[in-house]
């Protein structure tokens, strides 16, 4: 059975003092039954690694270079992230796609670079409001997923975490409805199943304005394995509330599973 995964995406937020406070609050209070990670800005990886040593919260980055090493000013390689104890890196976040020109081919190359050193890429996919309104949600996601699959190869798809993040729900306070989320997560699961026997092992997250109140219903959906959390990951009480919702959803899954035996 897939464990729930809750990942905080701090984006370009934090400083040494605030990070210490936030990670101090998380390190001892995250429930053991939930996999939990924080993706911090590059300069704070060393600090976060130290503050999380011995804690069950794992570390991630928000982006990675497609290149392994060399004359690429400003880039950060996957091996460097691994050196600092990262387990995950986000690739293809909609803010990178829309503001920094990361197209799906580049996202695929970044995912591949991450996998080559054993990092788990958290591949973000999602449609804009205009794409949803014109009925193109699945076509857009298929395009984003196919491009990455073409680069990493079908046999590597089971090594990804996929985060469905509708662009219109990110940072807007307007999470997608449970029905909208389940419909897309099940589409993604079906897309995976057509390509890899490992489809049932892949964790598919939802991201976009998740708050402690909305997390429960979203994490309880049949194809949901947790969330990618932006704003609420910067507030310890909210992030812990979301982790607790994941713990409860996980317990429900275990109960259902036991009931089926
Ligand atoms: P949000 O961000 O939770 O602030 O909407 C989610 C994300 O961008 O990953």
List the helices and strands and how they pair.
Elements: E1 5-9, H1 16-27, E2 35-39, H2 45-51, E3 57-61, H3 78-83, E4 86-91, H4 94-99, H5 104-116, E5 120-125, H6 129-133, H7 137-152, E6 161-164, H8 178-193, E7 203-207, H9 212-219, E8 226-229, H10 236-260
Parallel strand pairs: 1-2, 1-8, 2-3, 3-4, 4-5, 5-6, 6-7, 7-8
The structure holds 2-phosphoglycolic acid.
Question: What's the quick description here?
Answer:
It contains ten helices and eight strands.
Question: Notable features of this structure?
Answer:
binds 2-phosphoglycolic acid; TIM Barrel; eight-stranded parallel beta barrel; globular; alpha/beta; about 260 residues
Protein described:
The chain is α/β, with parallel strands linked by helices. The protein has one domain: Aldolase class I (TIM Barrel). The chain is 44% helix and 15% strand. It is built from 10 helices and 8 strands. The chain has helices at 16-27, 45-51, 78-83, 94-99, 104-116, 129-133, 137-152, 178-193, 212-219, 236-260; strands at 5-9, 35-39, 57-61, 86-91, 120-125, 161-164, 203-207, 226-229. An 8-stranded parallel β-barrel has the order 1-2-3-4-5-6-7-8, surrounded by 6 helices. Helix 9 (212-219) links the parallel strand 7 (203-207) and strand 8. Helix 9 (212-219) runs parallel beside helix 10 (236-260). The radius of gyration is 17 Å and the shape is globular. The structure holds 2-phosphoglycolic acid. 2-phosphoglycolic acid (PGA) is lined by residues 9, 165, 170-171, 207-210, 228-232.
């Amino acid at each position: 059975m897939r464990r729930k995964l809750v990942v905080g995406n701090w984006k370009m937020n934090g400083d040494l003092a605030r990070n210490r406070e936030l990670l101090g609050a998380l390190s001892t209070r995250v429930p053991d039954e939930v996999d939990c990670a924080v993706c911090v800005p590059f300069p704070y990886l060393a600090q976060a690694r130290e503050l999380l040593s011995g804690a069950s919260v794992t570390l991630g980055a928000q982006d990675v270079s497609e290149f392994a090493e060399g004359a690429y000013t400003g880039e950060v390689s996957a091996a460097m992230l691994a050196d600092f104890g990262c387990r995950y890196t986000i690739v293809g976040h909609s803010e990178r796609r829309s503001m920094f020109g990361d197209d799906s081919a580049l996202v695929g190359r970044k995912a591949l670079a991450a996998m080559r050193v054993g990092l788990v890429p958290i591949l973000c996919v999602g449609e804009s409001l205009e794409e949803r309104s014109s009925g193109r949600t699945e076509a857009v996601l298929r395009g984003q997923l196919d491009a990455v699959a073409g680069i990493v190869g079908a046999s590597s798809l089971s090594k990804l975490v996929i985060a469905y993040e509708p662009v219109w729900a990110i940072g807007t306070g307007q999470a997608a409805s449970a029905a909208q989320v389940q419909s897309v997560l099940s589409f993604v699961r079906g897309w995976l199943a057509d390509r890899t026997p490992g489809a049932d092992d892949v964790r598919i997250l939802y991201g976009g304005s998740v708050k402690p109140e909305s997390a429960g219903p979203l994490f309880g959906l049949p194809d949901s394995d947790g969330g990618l959390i932006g704003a609420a990951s910067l507030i310890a009480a909210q992030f812990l509330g979301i982790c607790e919702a994941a713990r409860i959803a996980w317990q429900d899954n275990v109960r259902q599973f036991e009931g089926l035996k």
